[in-house]
Amino acid sequence: MSRLVVISNRIADPRKPAAGGLAVALGETLSRTGGMWFGWSGTITEDGVPGEGKLQTRQAGGVTLATVDLCQEDHDSYYAGYSNSVLWPVFHYRLDLADFNAGYIAGYRRVNQMFARKLLPLLKDDDILWVHDYHLIPLAAELRALGCKQRIGFFLHIPVPPPLIMAAIPQHEWLMRSLFAYDLVGLQSEADVSHFTQYLRTEGGAESVGPQRLRAFGGTVQVGAFPIGIDVDEFSRLTAAPDAVQTYEAMKNEYSRRRLLMGIDRLDYSKGIPQRVRAFRELLARYPENQHSATLIMIASPTRDSVNAYADLRHELEGLCGAINGDHGDLDWMPVRYIHRTVARKRVPGLCRASAVGLVTPLRDGMNLVAKEYVAAQDPEDPGVLVLSRFAGAAEQMKEALLVNPYDTQGMADCIQTALRMPLAERQQRHQALMDRIRRHDIHWWRRTFLEALEKAQD
Ligand code: ADQ
């Protein structure tokens, strides 16, 4: 059997818990299959030379972890710059937040070239390579330029925007062309596949040359939707384990007379966190029965602090939560509990289970694993209700959630009220249907179908 080599910007020790969908998903995948995980170590060296990072390898269970450091300049241009100040905002439809600094692209190319140079000597002939996410779009093209013949698949965890938005990136054509070096390009949703296809038709004159196969820019590319899932069994085990049970009981105890609503995200502008808080404020105003009762717990982990847009978001949120608590709170009730921290993964299921409503309201999201985790953690006899943004990739699958438009504050408040008042039978019915879906398309299904499709992809 071929060895699997996973390449992503950040790697995480598969034996340790992590926040961030990609880390969680890949950790679970590799610990099942064994293989190698290659990526940035997370270390920024002060005296390093751009495009030259030290390679280190170590064993973690059955997985070889191979990492390179980045120097400050590479980190600033490749990671904070091109990846997170150009690609992330544009792919999430936020042209207003993009910083098209002309200096970033050189760092992005340099680091992708360095990754290719460092990785190539570690490869065996029959390895299968699986590259992840927007940081590494040109990696296969760089590897091919060095003579790499192995099969290489790519999975994009974030959404693909419509062609006219994509075209705002000065290097859009180079970026999209470089995807043709992969044997398979996997996207999260059918909407993403449709946007990618439309882009290739309008910008590259693409024509279909087979199912999910397109010819454009003088080459061909195979594309498909592979919606990522969670490890449902593992999450159920976590839900029944002592830490989660303890968290659940502590929450039930502390909030015994309250209805809990919860959100848990990285503190990212794509996640619609201020919009969620505004809808909650609207809920309290429109439906006063929720005063002294509904409590919104929001756990937002720090992320990408070096990018300005994130500091702005943090200030906005702090102001908003403070204002609601000041306007509506009482000596015995704080409407919003905002926690700017990563909570231990083993406690997440307890928090989900104690909450009558799970609020997953991104303005745009590739998939969103929290939506699936919330459902998996519920008690089937008395399940909570998932309120899910129609703009999350997860909405394509999770039709039995209450779907909302996060830009519509009043609509979202009404929807939360519906969730809070939903009769038990309807909650059970929706939960059962959602459980069936996330079970059918879990993380193992995702890995299997992607890797099978990669194996079958034409040369
Ligand atoms: P993310 O944007 O990181 O992932 P998401 O899919 O929601 O988003 O995954 C977040 C993960 O981190 C979940 O497992 C969640 O439980 C955990 N997490 C988040 N905040 C936390 C906190 N404060 N404390 C503890 N744990 C926390 C990207 C894309 C998504 C896509 C995934 C996987 O942006 O759209 O679903 O990759 O492809």
Approximate helicity band: 40-55%
- How are the strands of the largest sheet arranged? 3-4-2-1-5-6-7-10-9-8
Bound chemical compounds:
adenosine-5'-diphosphate-glucose
- Rg, rounded, reads 22 Å
Class based on secondary structure composition and strand pairing: alpha/beta
Low-confidence stretches: none
Number of helices: 16
Termini separation: 19 Å
- The count of β-strands is 16
> In what range is the share of β-strand residues?
15-25%
Quote the average pLDDT. 94
Q: Categorize the overall geometry.
A: globular
Q: Biggest sheet, in brief?
A: 10 strands, mixed
Short description:
It is built from 16 helices and 16 strands. It is of the alpha/beta class and 459 residues long.
Describe the structure.
This protein has 16 helices and 16 strands. Helix content is 43%, strand content 20%. It is an alpha/beta fold and 459 residues long. Helix 1 links the parallel strand 1 and strand 2 (35-45). Adenosine-5'-diphosphate-glucose is lined by residues 19-22, 24-25, 157-158, 228, 264-266, 299-301, 342-343, 345, 348, 365-370, 373.
